[in-house]
Specification:
alpha+beta; eight-stranded antiparallel β-sheet; 8 strands; 19% helix
């Protein structure tokens, strides 16, 4: 199975307590700590690997970006993390359709809803 070198998803709504609880359970991560304007960081662990975590609030059209800077997380791909987050956090989650390659449409995303419904959507970067 392919593992991405890092994974990123976009959360429609961030409930800090729920997010911290989930990251604590899944990655044994301490609660997210402020790391600059609209940024929070923590470090989790999976096996022997350390997993740096970055949350950027209002990263894109009101969505927060959750970035795990490691290939060693419990989720091999963006899609795996998006599905887990939508189910656990009860919010809409978006992610890229796969490992991005030059020539791919950068505005095509996978939308995952809390009930498990998935759709491919156009989500142009508003440049905010």
């Amino acid at each position: 199975m392919e593992r991405y070198p890092d994974i990123e998803i976009y959360l429609a709504r961030v409930e800090p307590e729920a997010l911290n609880a989930w990251l604590g359970e899944a990655l044994d991560a301490a609660p997210l700590a402020p790391a600059g304007k609209h940024r929070w960081r923590t470090r989790g662990h999976h096996g022997d690997a350390e997993i740096p975590v970055l949350l950027v609030d209002k990263a894109a059209d009101g969505f927060a970006s959750l970035w795990l800077d490691s290939a060693e997380s419990p989720w091999p791909t963006d899609t795996d993390l998006a599905r887990a987050a939508a189910k656990r956090l009860g919010c809409e989650v978006r992610c890229s359709l796969g490992g991005w390659q030059p020539g791919d449409d950068p505005d095509r995303f996978l939308q995952v809803l809390p009930d498990g419904a998935e759709a491919t959507i156009d989500w142009p970067d508003s440049g905010q």
